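Exam prep: given the inputs below (a chain plus coenzyme A), describe the expected output before reading on.
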Amino acid sequence: MKALEGVRILDMTHVQSGPTCTQLLAWFGADVIKVERPGVGDATRGQLRDIPDVDSLYFTMLNHNKRSITLNTKHETGKEIFTRLLEECDVIAENFAPGALDRMGFSWERIQEINPRIIYASVKGFGAGPYEDLKVYENVAQCAGGAASTTGFDDGPPTVTGAQIGDSGTGLNLALGIVTALYHREKSGRGQRVECAMQDGVLNLCRVKLRDQQRLKQGPLTEYPQYPQGEFGEAVPRGGNASGGGQPGWIVKCKGWETDPNAYIYVITQAAAFAGLAKAIGKEEWLDDPKWNTPEARLPKLEELFEEIENWTKTQTKFEVMEKLNPVNVPCGPILSMKEIAEEPALRETGTVVEVDHPKRGKYLTVGNPVKLSDSPSEVKRSPLLGEHTDEILRSVVGFNEDQIASAKEVGAV
Ligand code: COA
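Solution:
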């Protein structure tokens, strides 16, 4: 049995943050009914299209295992249908601009009147405060949540990361909030509001940087590349490729770096594995040298240390470095390109990268469920076409007969 079988979700989400959440719940077996504007649908269906008139990969990769109903929730008949859906669902999830659902006539108070057991889950850019009314996209959240000011190199501008920590990251928070509220409902019998702000989600992932902001008062942050030569200002600087924990780490070049932009590896010089690392790179003499053989002695010379490591890694491919450093317990990770990830058999094996067949697009790759449950494995099914399940949902969930379905279509409500 699927873990969330029997849970029905009214999915008013669009773009990335909300759909990430409801896709995850759908993979766990929830019946996710995606509500989309008639004739238009989720804007991402048409964004970054690679094939004309075919749902984009942007859309298909965020909306697996869902059913799609088109519904104009601003139309009178549409509102009646929407009210019936609220009665029949356990959760409503949305990530519209602030106030959009209220403007449709469905405030939290009204939703509770319709169904006191329903959980109302929202993503917004910001929580209450000066920015609460703003529309927000991924990189706005990365900038406002502390990620951009702390990412990049000291001599460069603030930098956003490719990982969608504002959108997909907040979607994960929302999913946890929904499942927690469902668990709470078992005892209380009541639904509740779940609100996740993207700024909060990014900051939660930047927790170590707020830690460092407070450490800064006591002196320089010795694990940052600015130490010992550089200056520290009033705020946490950009850390380059330094590790966020206490163990010094950096990205170093490997064989082929001149032509391959991803011929690099991350190496961590953990004290416990330093002897193995020194031997592997041909610097065994360091082990008897007080200038090198303690973490304290190495700390002011990290740049030189990583230069020496790089002199060796440049003679090896990133995978050869892995083969040599893993047996001596030196933590290291190859910089894998998206091409390498797409072709990696182990990721296919575990269902982390999945090939899906789509009636209009054909076969494509997607990222499967990153959470593996031993008793309820996930099956990744293709995303729905716009309104593919409208009739089916009107019939089986809303309880409409064929005449009512025809009339709803005629008046433009669906
Ligand atoms: N029937 C009728 N109207 C519908 C509808 C439907 N099925 N679905 C959406 N709409 C309406 C909304 O009610 C809204 O109307 P309103 O402006 O009169 O209230 C309108 O469509 C547009 O919705 P909105 O959310 O404002 O879309 P947008 O494209 O202008 O903004 C975002 C997009 C993402 C910036 C915005 O939704 C937002 O800030 N969301 C919260 C933060 C977030 O999740 N951002 C990350 C996105 S990955």
